[in-house]
Structures are given as structure tokens and as C-alpha cells.
Amino acid sequence: MKLFSQIQQKKSLLCVGLDTDIQKIPEHLLGFPDPVFEFNKRIIDATAPFAVACKINLAFYECMGKKGWDSLEKILDYMPGDIFTIADAKRGDIGNTSRMYARTFFETYAFDSITVAPYMGEDSVKPFLEYEDKMVFLLALTSNKGAEDFQWFSDGKSTLYQQVVSKSQQWAKESKGKLGYVVGATRPDDIAGIREQAPDTFFLVPGVGAQGGDLHAICQKGANAQGGLLINASRSIIYAGKGEDFAEKAAAEAAFLQKETALYCGG
Amino acid sequence: MKLFSQIQQKKSLLCVGLDTDIQKIPEHLLGFPDPVFEFNKRIIDATAPFAVACKINLAFYECMGKKGWDSLEKILDYMPGDIFTIADAKRGDIGNTSRMYARTFFETYAFDSITVAPYMGEDSVKPFLEYEDKMVFLLALTSNKGAEDFQWFSDGKSTLYQQVVSKSQQWAKESKGKLGYVVGATRPDDIAGIREQAPDTFFLVPGVGAQGGDLHAICQKGANAQGGLLINASRSIIYAGKGEDFAEKAAAEAAFLQKETALYCGG
Predict the structure, then answer these.
(1) B245-259, pLDDT tens digit by residue?
(2) How many structural domains does chain B have?
């Protein structure tokens, strides 16, 4: 799979999050017909040498309506072939509807993977696993405050998020490694526990940077012998600079995170 | 709120689900430039006299890419003002991302309400409740088989879905009734329990018809003094006929469901 070979080749666990908000784009790009695309294009060019993946937060594109989907199409077309793409869409519905969402992100748009919410259970997740060479990142433990509301609900032996991991480990095995987890960077100790439950599973870890997760603690506790991690940084990279040199500043931040994660790539 | 007055006026709890799949549209519509819109337009015309709400399953539109969002826009523009619209989108993400999703469905597209997934907790739900005159239907107990995987996870005193209801009752109060629940029609006994936990909260009940839920059991156990229910039927209405008379057949099915639900409208 592209992702694994790229981690070894680039010695990087970095995933760049394109949470692009038109209200935060440097002024000199606003004159272009599609400023969101122009911004992302420059961020991709600047960060691709240091990153193995790119996570696109769908909310930021959907909120612009058709224009946003248009930008998204152009961004995917522009994406270098060696960058693994993640639709951060957090979909999940009854089986026949999840099948339509899978078609959306894997056929209509050629993403390499998608984030999926577990609340509706097996038939809401499995349609995404039926595709060859596509991955699913199932929400396990998220980085936000609200994670405590339900993900830590416990029967005395395990929490809900641990249940999600243990039940879905079977789906991960059946799918031959196509299922991974979203594990928030704000809780390194819990990452260690999830790594014990799921030694061979890939983790997508958002929350480094703007949300305050500690990079080294996460890598030490979350990496496995193959790396097994993607460290996502969004705002801290794409808004590292606000002026005409925003792309250089993004590159510097990405280069820094590549170096910091190089130690943990395994292989 | 439009929804409550319409239930009393039309004596109906019916919500028509526009899960429109271009592969299932009658042949004679396929020559139109936008067959999905033409189909929905005729379904809306035929069923609006009997229905109070319309639920649009986003997956069926997203999977067509920009064309799908184009159809969606036309459908919303065409929708009669007395029909309460639901974006069945099951979104939910960290606060700043949920805010973008709220903007998508309440500003970019003028839906009256949205379905939201609870897994990520309070900050993933509250941005949707900040809008005046908009409603949120939080997933509580869903109609699919996978519901059993996590929604019934229990600490011995209550299940996860009961936790979702009890915790979010506070948000429902703070939002003055703008929060309701998705409660699947396939489990009438559990609906009775959720009604006890949440006597004044609105329930959106999918799963009648194609998914096999029993209408009268649900209404008896789920209705409150104001009605307090929306009974959604999708495939059983929109695909009631396959030929040129599909709209008449849809109208007949909708009229039947209106009469069946009239008893439970309260008021």
C-alpha cells in the first residue's frame, strides 16, 4: 500500500490537514477565481516533500456549496500520486446509505481513505471496507472535550471507545488491515492502551498543534514497528504564516514535523 | 414552530424520505436534464398534501458529485413553505468543524433541521443548536442491525443510547426544544423507554416500511400529547410504483400513512 512504502521512503509520519477557511486565506490570493484551490495548491507544493498524507476536512468545502465541491475536485486532481488522501467526512449510516457514501468518496471522488463514525455499528462501517486499496479510519477516541461525554462511558471493565476498538478488530482482520482508528493526540496515555488492544492497526492522530497534543509522547506511545501512525497537523501548518510567504512558513513547519517524526517510522 | 402547527393542521405525522437513487427512477424521466430533480418534484407535488416534513438523505445526492448538490439546491428551492425539511446528514465533529457543517446545512442550504451523530459529545452537537428556528435530531437508537453493536453497550444501569438521551436532555432544555432524537421504528418497546426519559422531546422515526417497523406500535408507544413524532417513510413511498403512475402510487401510500397517523397527532 502506497502509505506504508511512503512512510519508509520519506521517513515521515506527517499528514497535512487542509482545513482551509476562505476567511483565513492570505489577501493576495483573494483575486483568483478559486482562492481556496490556489491556497491549497501552494500548501501542497510546499509540504508534499515532507508529508505522506493529506487529510481534507469536508466541512470546510461543503459549507461553500457547489463551489466547494468544485475546489475539492481540483485539489484531488492536483494531488501528487505519492500522497495518501483522507476524506475527513466522519460518515456512518445504515448499510444501504453507507454504501452510497462509500461510492461518493471512493468512486465519485478518488480518495484513498475516509473517516467513519462508529455509533451505528457494523453495517454502517463495512461497506467502506469492501473496496480494494482503500482504507477506513474509524473514530475511536477523539481529541475534543466532548470525547468524555460518551467515549468514556464504561461497564466497569472497558470504556465505549475500547469496545469500539475490540469489536472492530475483527473487521480489521477480515479486511486485511484496511481498517484503522482515529485517536486524538490530546490523550497520549490512552493511545498506549489502544496500541495494546490493536498492535497492528494504523492510527490517524489529529490534534497536534492547534489542539495541543504532545508530538513525542504520542509517537512514543502510539508507534509500532511499521510506524503505524499518521500525525495530522492542520492549522499549525496551513496558517503558519499570514502573508505572501505563507507557503514557505508552511514548508518550514512541515519540515520540522517530518524530522520530529522520522525517529518513529520503524522499518 | 412550523412543524408543530403543521402537524395539527394536516393531522399528519408523515415525513417523506427522498432517498432518490437515479438507478431506480422510472425510465420516462431519464430524458430530462436533471432526472433526480424531476422525480423529486413529482413526489413532492404528490405527497405534500399528506406530509408535514421531508427528509433528504444526503448520501444519495453527494454520490453524484456537483450534479447532486445542484439537484439538492433545486429541490430545496421547490419545496413548499409548509414542509419542514430535514438534512439527513448524520454529521458530527469537533466544535469548530461542526460549526462549518451547521453553516452548510442552515445557511448555504436552508434546511430546517439536521440529523447529528453523538459519538463526539457536546461540542460536536451544540453548534447546530445555536440557530434560531432550526432543529437537531440526535441519533439515539437507530433502526439497523448494527445498532446493537454499541448503542446497547451498558454499565448495568443504562445503555449507551439511554446515556445519550439523558445527557442530551440538558442540551434540549437549554435550547428550548430545538433538540430531538432519531429513534428507529424497528424497536417499539425501546421507543416507550425513550419517551419516558424524554417526555417533551420530538422523535424522528425512520424504518417504517422497507425496514419493517410497525407503525401503530410505534405511534402508541412514542407519541406524546403534542404528537411529538415524525414517521419517516422513504422507499415504500417513493418507489411505490415503477411506471408512469409512480407519483399517484406515492400519493396513495402517503395518504394512507397520513390517515394512519392522524389518530396520534394530539392537540
Answers:
(1) 999 999 999 999 999
(2) 1
